[in-house]
Amino acid sequence: MTRTLRNALLGAAFGLALTAGSAGAATIKVGVVAPFSGPFALVGKTFKEAIEVYQAEHGKTVGNDTVEFVYKDLDQANPAQSKALSQELIVKEKVGYLAGYFFTPDALAVAPLIDEANIPCVIFNAATSAITEKSPRYVRTSFTLWQNTVPLAEYMAKQGIKKVVTAVSDYGPGIDGETAFKATFEKNGGTVVDTIRMPLKSNDFAPFMQRIKDAGAEAIYAFLPAGPTTLAFAKSFSDNGLKAAGIKFFGPGDITQEPDLPALGDAALGITTTFNYSRVHDSAMNKAFLAKHKEMFGSTDTVTFTSVGAYDGAHVIYQMIKNTGGKSDGAKAVESVKGMSWESPRGPLTIDPNSRHVTQTIYLRTVEPVDGKLENVEKAAFANQPDYGYKVGK
Amino acid sequence: MTTMADHSAPETTTPGNTLMTTRRGIDWIGIPVVAAVGLAAYWLLPDDLGLLTRILSSALFVLSLDLVLGYGGIATLGQAAMFGAGAYAAGIAAVNWVADPFALLAVGGVAGGLVALATGALILHARGLTLLMLTIAVAQIVQEVANKARDWTGGSDGLSGIEPAPVLGMFRFDMYGRTSYLFALAVLVVALVVARRIVRSPFGLACRGVKEDPLRVSAIGGSPKLYLVALYGVAGVFAGVAGGLTAVTSGIVGLDSVGFSWSAEALVMLVLGGTGRLYGAVIGTAAFMGIHHILAASDPFHWMAFIGLFLIGIVLFLPGGIASGVERLVGLVRGKEDRA
Predict the structure, then answer these.
(1) Are residues A288 and A350 in the same domain?
(2) What is the DSSP letter of A96?
(3) Contact flag A37-B302 (C-beta cutoff 8 Å)
(4) Are A55 and A68 members of one domain?
(5) Closest chain B residue to A70 measured between Cα atoms?
(6) Set of chain B residues whose Cβ sits within 8 Å of the Cβ of A37
């Protein structure tokens, strides 16, 4: 308190400009690498807005140190560029923490850097389980496909669904989802009657819909990258009469992310997903988060899972700075947050000491209209879900 | 490609003559200048070596594109197929068998060359737009193979864990990128020397002949397709080495290295620098990536618009690329000297 007082006095004496520098403390920089332009620009925007909301709520200082976020644009998956940008952040900007990373290869690219520089890297999104195995300095605040898929498969088996077709995009995360689903669902007594892998760039899904019909499945488990492909898939699902035939549509929550829902429209109605965050999650903290977001940016239309990934990531970084007293020691900082639990807008979180990935509640949601807007309405919650893919999946 | 017109300009006319001598003059000093500027950048910008290393390995890739487009007239949007093949081959070799960086470059070069020879033999009978489409198709196939062969390539997660041994057993690839940068610079300079030798050899001249007039080449007993396939293969080796260099210096290979946008971006950089000059590839890459970096750093959210304006400006005012502007400038100075 006395220090604050002294600072305030100093400030009064020397004016505003001087106080900022004379606090006798350093500025700790956090480098955020994410897409801020191009087709995935929305991701970077949600990261940045969530960080700003967090800083507005918790202040820009930790102890005596000011925390400053530096943003670098990486518009698509490009690991070589990711490494060059991160290297620049470390060497030139002298950041004490790295954060962000939307795509898995971009996150993987920095493993040798953070080990050599002894800097923690907090991943806001990149969701392949294997990432945190590659360096002890990774901490992740998002989710993995395994984490979302295992409770979904168990739920479906409990609902008495016996025959399921999996339809995933033919790339890393899709295959992760398929593997996780098949393993869990068959262990729980169900049968996966067909596994369909669709080319990443396909837009015509009619032939796949025919295959799903022919397989005689009661439900499908689908995963596609969020955006236009999911839109086409969901439309094709209802246009080809699968929805009318009573086939149920399940999948991880990425496919019904909040910013896409208006475009998905009625085709999205009734899609049941499991995920770590819904914008309409009913908690005081989420309401406060949304209110602050609305106050600062005028709308909450873009708030989605990447927002809370960044919000909680910022929280972890603040805690690390606090625990290390502002000194730069990556190994110690990561050690200090292992096992840490806290309350987030998405619910209770714990950093698993082994995998350094968040253990969290996974919610079962159905797309329904709320006040004229489509939302992922939570129907059930599965508490304390770890990353089931750690050291299992690829 | 219109920039090549002055090659066929009759040597008797004065403007053509000065341009030819100018270009020859620049050609001589071009490679030492690249080496000198590269070394100067090492001292002047010690904090930006990550970006500079990316520029060097990309310049090598654009150089390979200049060989096929600027000297063979092969319109391609699939050069990344060779780059990616080289990068993945070097990466897979590094993860499983060898660690010596020079050996990895060789592996990359061989892979790029083989892919180029195999696909070139299949598609180079076509010309113009048909050829363009075929090159895109080849790159798509290579990309899909890389995506499917997840056990080897890591699929969309990327192939990580490439840890090359120290260069010559002495210089470790460190976090600051000093070794990476000097290694890349050395590779690029050697590649420029070799490329220069190739385009001035009888083989290189024959390829230019094919570019200008394939009919005439066949009339004097040469096989245009043979020359083009050979040139495509040689350029494939360059692209493969560039891929290997990227794998070695960045330690990871992603699907983007075989992507369409990488091929297209290389074409933009080449046209920006100037085709058919070799050093135009280096200038174009340095200019594009440098400006991209400065703009993206100062405004990470809207830099693309400024890049667009910059490109439009270059195309309007320097249709032959930045290199043609340099040549005109040198020509102007020379002209004054002659008159004096």
Answers:
(1) yes
(2) S
(3) yes
(4) yes
(5) B297
(6) 296, 300-304
User: Within this chain, do residues A74 and A124 fall inside the same structural domain, yes or no?
Assistant: yes
* Contact in structure between B70 and B199 (CB atoms under 8 Å): no
Q: What is the C-alpha separation between A124 and A105, in angstroms, rounded?
A: 14
| Max Cα distance, chain B (Å) | 69
| A316 is a domain residue | yes
Range of the domain at B40: 2-339
- The per-residue pLDDT for range A9-29, each reduced to its tens digit, is 444 444 443 333 334 468 999
Residue A129 pLDDT grade (very low, low, confident, very high; cuts 50, 70, 90): confident
Q: Is residue A391 situated within a structural domain? A: no
Q: Which residue of B has its CA nearest to A131?
A: B157
Residue-level pLDDT at B22: 54
Write the ipTM: 0.81
User: What is the number of domains present in chain B?
Assistant: 1
- Both A123 and A79 in one domain: the answer is yes
The CA distance from B29 to A244, in Å, is: 73
Q: Which among A326, A383, A377 has a CA at the least distance from the CA of A350?
A: A383
**Which residue range(s) make up the domain with A320?**
2-143+282-356
Q: What is the CATH number of the domain that holds A271?
A: 3.40.50.2300
Mutation pick from B57, B95, B156, B172 vs chain A, by most beta carbons of A within 10 Å, is B156
**C-beta atoms of A128 and B157 within 8 A:** yes
Q: Which of A32, A76, A78, A201 to mutate to test the interface with B (most CBs of B within 10 A)?
A: A78
Q: For residue A217, tell me if it sits in a domain.
A: yes
Cross-chain Cβ contact A36/B51 below 8 Å: no
Q: What is the pTM of this model?
A: 0.84
In the prediction, which pLDDT does A255 show? 86
Judge: B51–A112 Cβ closer than 8 Å, yes or no.
no
The percentage of chain B sitting over the pLDDT mark of 90, rounded to a whole number, equals 54
Does the beta-carbon distance from A41 to B301 stay under 8 Å?
yes
Which residue in B has a C-alpha nearest to residue A84's C-alpha? B50
pLDDT the model gives residue B26? 59
Q: Find the closest chain A residue to B300 by CA distance.
A: A73
Residue-wise pLDDT tens digits, B39-50:
999 999 888 898
A176 and A89 in a common domain: no
Residues A219 and A201 both lie in one domain:
yes
Same domain, A348 and A367: no
- Gap between the Cα atoms of A77 and A69, Å rounded: 22
Report the residue from A91, A104, A117 with minimal CB separation from B158. Answer: A104
Residue A185 domain flag: yes
Instruction: Give A170→chain B minimum CA distance, Å.
Output: 8
3-state secondary structure B55-124: HHHHHHHHHHHHHHHHHCCCCCCCCHHHHHHHHHHHHHHHHHCCCCHHHHHHHHHHHHHHHHHHHHHHHC
Question: CA-CA distance, B51 to B289, in Å (whole number)?
Answer: 8
Nearest CA in chain B to A129: B157
Contact A85 B50 (CB under 8 A): yes
According to DSSP, residue B325 is labeled H
